[in-house]
Prior knowledge:
The chain is of the alpha+beta class.
Amino acid sequence: xxxxxxxxxxxxISAGILxxxxxxxxxxxxxxxxxxxxxxxxxxxxxxxxxxxRRIALPEQAASDIAIPAAxxxxxxxxxxxxxxxxxxxxxxxxxxxxxxxxxxxxxxLKCTRAAAFDLSAACSGFIYALIVAQQFVNTGxxxxxxVVASEVLSKAVNWGDRETCVLFGDGAGAVVVGPVDKxxxxxxxxLAAEGAGWDxxxxxxxxxxxxxxxxxxxNGKHFISMNGKEVFKFAAKVMEEGSLxxxxxAGLSKEDIxxxxxxxxxxxxxxxxxxxxxxxxxxxxxxxxKYGNTSASSIILAMDEALEQGLINTGxxxxxxxxxxxxxxxxxxxxxx
Length: 338
Ligand code: UT7
């Protein structure tokens, strides 16, 4: 486990979020539509998950395509030019292809000509992991501006005949520009963790070096997401609380100091459980799972961008954000907004 607090060293540069952007594909798939595809119901999906609809990318849209509008919006909001970006990190479980990194494709298409670029794999915790990696580069002065992107086209990774997974996921992309901020602002503390013992609870096993892509692997559905939902639920309920409390403690803050909790949007019951355990009223919790489903690494940025649009985040606010996902991984951060 890694516990990180804002460096008090005089030379350390505080890092914060300077701009946020998000994008979702136009096509809406409602629970009613799913009723015609698998043995499910709007009632089951709504009450068990809180999801009412999700967005679905076009056949020709890959992760980098939906990331571009999100990244452009984040760059505009931060007032940072593409050529000022030193590093691009893309958190995704559904990259354009195995290699090159989706970050390299974005570097070219966004004209971030000076930027180094790599992808990061931490599933639904990917945004928090990437944010904290970016923070380290800014803290040390190695990079001034880092573009952190999360982009997921999960509709191309789910088995549309498997009701236990296909109702949960959606497509979407988000981006933030991480850069220097005044001392006392930005990322105050963070916590990154993994429990590899649970690696097999949520996987996309095929087309890797263990199960290469073959006619047989496709016939056996190894190219689809496979999940033990109940076990992931139990894990999530535990770490959402633990990770949040740990991160608050590192920041020297209590729950009363938190203006808004922005959790990973996987299941409304997991979010409500976390809020209850933390003693936070739901008015202080950003929820948009009903509109987009679980967009994995992108979900927190989609919620953050919407919270900004609704005026729910202001300068000086302490934002707590927490995610969990395949790996198993989890991560949390407390951010004092600039
Ligand atoms: O970002 C991280 C990714 N993953 C997650 O966060 C997932 C965490 N887990 C969950 O959110 C929940 O476990 C699920 C939403 C996946 C499932 O909810 P649950 O309350 O744990 O349901 P369950 O798996 O215990 O299934 C209850 C029943 C079962 O039927 P029986 O055995 O009781 O007859 C399932 O077969 O519901 C059935 N079921 C469905 N019924 C209608 C499962 N999926 C569906 C469905 N529609 N889509």
